[in-house]
Write a structure and sequence with these properties.
By secondary structure, the chain is of the alpha/beta class. It has 3 domains: about 160 residues, EAL domain (TIM Barrel), CATH 3.20.20.450; about 70 residues, no CATH class; about 110 residues, no CATH class. The protein has 18 helices and 8 strands. It has an 8-stranded mixed barrel with strand order 1-2-3-4-5-6-7-8. Helix 9 crosses helix 10, helix 10 packs across helix 12 and helix 12 packs across helix 16. The longest helix has 20 residues.
Length: about 400
Amino acid sequence: MSSSDNFPLITLQPVADAGHFWVALMLEGDVALDSSVLTRVLGDYALAAALDDAVSCIAVVDPLLMDPALVGSLLPPGRLILRFPVAVAADAAQHATLGALQDAGLAMMATGFPEPDASLLPGLTSLAVTCPGRHVPAGFAEWLSKLPGPHLALGPTQDICPGFCKFHWRAGHEDTQAANTRGDPTSRSLLLKLLVLVAADADSAEIGGLIKHDANLAFHLLKLVNSPAFAPDSRITSFAQAIMLLGRRQLQRWVQLLLYARPPGSTVASPLLPRAALRASLMEALARRLQFSREQQDMAFMTGMFSLLEALFGMPIAEIIAQLSLDEAVAQALTVGDGPFGALLATVVASEGPPSPELAANLLGLGISREDWAAALSEAARWAVLVSREA
């Protein structure tokens, strides 16, 4: 693989609203991002193609490195949000540069809490702030109310100010303890039984018979299999048809995703489903770049998907997977982090935050270049965004 010393190490973090629905992806680098990097990630790696009207990209950048003509065409107006220090937004000498980017259709978000008498960039609508927890300083709420938002909360979920995210956005993956969405244990048990049947290559009648035991499970199965994430050529209306058209490989993925589905009628999304989808898809993309076999790529996908079952069920992962006949390499990766899938999982988990030395070291150990990492991450995020619409 080619060297990538000049390409930044990037990560993509979800940005969710109060209902846990993904509203944006936040792109960060270990160095200041410029127009060429945004063009590569959003254009060449096709991340922009995955972002529909409901999902934007928040890029942490140095505005002085942005070419308005180059980046203004990457996404429709207002959908590419540039995030930069609040000191830049308060510096009148920078307003002309920022204004040119606004004229090109880019939205502006300042990071940090402005001084009480600050004169910010005209047209600035949003702040990205690290919430101070329960001890909110004087003037905090007043500054947030001066700008229409939506404002972005940074930092761990448990540190978000009470009430802040009822009206705004939060960045990053939610704490898995807070994200526990076990729902109906009967449906979860049926899904695990279904996974066993699919893995054992049971016949279609036996699989369909189990599905029919639970109306909610049946509803979710048909909803998901007809979603853009699987993009069937024609609408699927029965379980037998789904099994026949999808095949065992896709059916396994279908069932794995449904472990994390939100309860029927819920207006709050499952925070675990798109996160598990991102892990699974990213592990598969990395395995493909490492020239793993197709079977190994499927096992990498499964490892990523099952890596959040402990948070889902609230019980040790070893007890959960004891019910499944998993390959030993997958089981070892999930329980003790060993083997090739354990190394991939550690890399993916290390990417669930800003770029770090740990992530850089893991990629170096795997022999994955930074360009290949960026391409794999963009590919995985595209699928996770599709899945998040059904979360």
